[in-house]
Amino acid sequence: xxxxxxxxINNCTRDEYQVAQLYAVAEASKEETGDGEGVxxxxxEPYENAEGKGQYTYKIYHLSNKVPxxxxxxAPSGALELYEEAWNAYPHCKTxxxxxxxxxxxxxxxxxxxxxxxxxxxxxxxxxxQDLLEKREVVIIDVANDPIEPKDYKKDQDPxxxxxxxxxxxxxxxxxxxxxTPVMTCxxxxxxxxxxxxxQSKIENFIQxxxxxxxxxxxxxxxxxxxxxYGMTMDxxxxxxxxxxxxxxxxxxxxxxxxxx
Length: 261
Prior knowledge:
Number of strands: 8
Oligomer: single chain
Largest sheet: 8 strands, mixed
Organism: Rhizophagus clarus
CATH architecture: 2-Layer Sandwich
Domain Phosphatidylinositol transfer protein N-terminal: 1-245
Number of helices: 7
Number of domains: 1
GO molecular function: phosphatidylcholine binding; phosphatidylcholine transporter activity; phosphatidylinositol binding; phosphatidylinositol transfer activity
Structural class: alpha+beta
GO cellular component, one term: cell periphery
Protein name: Phosphatidylinositol transfer protein alpha isoform isoform X1
CATH class: Alpha Beta
Strand order of the largest sheet: 2-3-4-5-6-8-1-7
Helix content: 25-40%
Strand content: 25-35%
């Protein structure tokens, strides 16, 4: 098992980030859906249990066209679908990702605490045990200066170039993390477990590297979409999520084989 805590610093307030994150998730889902593949939102509803209350989502990621053809040919049924459950009790959130084929042999858990006026300096924002602290590796993510793959680069999603007309924020330059206001940090504790003899360490390291890439890309987008989400209310976001779910379902349905009548 590999445990890493990613600390993502953002040029916004914690309250703003709640709206920004949900908007960016909806937009990213659109980008990943098409040709019968992508994100299928099964549930998006309020929840309340012994631990608290918030918003529960259940999604299925259909991935067969996102992997090499040789893997598609060899993989058994269920291997190319990921199931995501998320409990969003903002500012605390938890996401669990599993796979139908791997069952209990694969689990990817992300637990996040969002902290206002923080620049990534809090040592134990998630209040984890001493045992986990000793196993944890801390990774600071700088959305402006960290390198990204050329295939992921988009000029209109470059924080070093983007300037928000509505807020006056950006571009993010040099040691912006020390200077920018407003500021908040997402403390993301990622635990990955992949039980497969001979491959466990290699795959777990690969998945952690992929998570770092995803967090970097996502938060670059989030900042560069500031003028799109800034000013939206939570009611606006819920309506936008509902419309996005409808559009995603339509997009996937059009690409799936139709039954003969």
